UniProtKB/TrEMBL annotation:
EC primary class: oxidoreductase
Subcellular location, principal: mitochondrion
Pathway: Lipid metabolism; fatty acid beta-oxidation
Keywords: Fatty acid metabolism, Lipid metabolism, Mitochondrion, NAD, Oxidoreductase
Name of the molecule in the record: 3-hydroxyacyl-CoA dehydrogenase
Any one Gene Ontology molecular-function term assigned to this protein's record: (3S)-3-hydroxyacyl-CoA dehydrogenase (NAD+) activity
Originating gene: LOC106125614
């Protein structure tokens, strides 16, 4: 694998004085690769950084397959246009195992493990290495962005960009305002979110932001309902899809996003809010301990074919 492998669609022009043209995504997992894909489709040059070469290989294959699906949806049976769309978009993406290779960007988005100390260490390093104009952003789903960025100097050029999985499909982007973000940075982040095709909402740095603050109790109660044997996983999911109009049931969604991630979010939310609805769930803890963390491991509340 080449250390830098070149992955485009027309860039949406922005009226912002600080329009984002180059993006670095730190983390080559599902979220990171999805963020990289939508940025590349919008015409931006992107570098994905991950310390694991195998994750970068997997990310590239996934992005190429996803771009092909997008191209077919956009251009139907026009094979020439499909091929051109995939080629141009794919060629805007590079990969690297070294963060030093990718800090010269207009925007750096962190999409790594949901652990405060690991994120803090990364942002402290990025703050030292990145050019002065670079905006730093975290994709955290539950940790306080003020705590993550506590050690950086460029607090005015730092905020939260919380995407949803799968990124190329989910239209929402939560733009999180830290205590010290400048208005120029906030507006630039909002404009960038729109440029990659997202509908942006704004939230203060509050536990769970908007979606997870509301989704957390719903998901937790669904797991407890299943844990008590009140209904099967399939019936719980069917009920919420057909009775409440949800595109996915709560247990399907938990499997898709990762039960380990769900467990960690509940822990953070319980720690920050003290609400009983976020208390630990024995079944969820057991599944995570057994390595049954959902679709990515082949089993969670459901079993999946590899």
């Amino acid at each position: 694998m080449n250390k830098f492998v070149g992955l485009t669609r027309k860039f949406s022009s922005s009226s912002s004085l600080n329009a984002i043209k180059t993006v670095t995504v730190v983390g080559g997992g599902l979220m990171g690769s999805g963020i990289a894909q939508v940025a590349a489709q919008a015409g931006q040059n992107v570098t994905i950084v991950d310390i694991k070469p195998e994750l970068l290989d997997k990310a590239q294959k996934s992005i190429h397959n996803n771009l092909t699906r997008v191209g077919k949806k956009m251009y139907k049976d026009d094979s020439a246009k499909i091929e051109n769309f995939v080629k141009e978009s794919y060629n805007r993406i590079q990969v690297s195992t070294k963060i030093e290779d990718a800090v010269k960007a207009d925007l750096i988005i962190e999409a790594i493990v949901e652990k405060l100390d690991v994120k803090q260490e990364l942002f402290n390093k990025l703050d030292q290495l990145a050019p002065e104009h670079t905006i730093l952003a975290t994709n955290t789903s539950s940790i306080s962005i003020n705590e993550i960025g506590a050690g950086i100097k460029r607090k005015d050029r730092y905020g939260g960009l919380h995407f949803f999985n799968p990124v190329p499909v989910m239209r929402l982007l939560e733009v999180i305002k830290g205590d010290h973000i400048s208005e120029a940075t906030y507006q630039t982040m909002m404009e960038w979110g729109k440029s990659v095709g997202k509908t942006c909402i704004t939230c203060k740095d509050t536990p769970g932001f908007v979606v997870n603050r509301l989704l957390g109790p719903y998901s937790a109660e669904a797991i407890r309902l299943y844990e008590r044997g009140d209904a099967t996983a399939s019936d719980i999911d069917t009920a919420m899809k057909l009775g409440a109009g949800f595109p996915m049931g709560p247990l399907e969604l938990a499997d898709f996003t990762g039960l380990d991630n769900k467990k960690y979010i509940l822990e953070i939310m319980h720690q920050k809010t003290g609400l009983t609805v976020f208390q630990p769930i024995a079944l969820l803890n057991r599944l995570v301990e057994e390595g049954k963390v959902g679709k990515k491991s082949g089993e969670g509340f459901y079993k999946y074919k590899s």
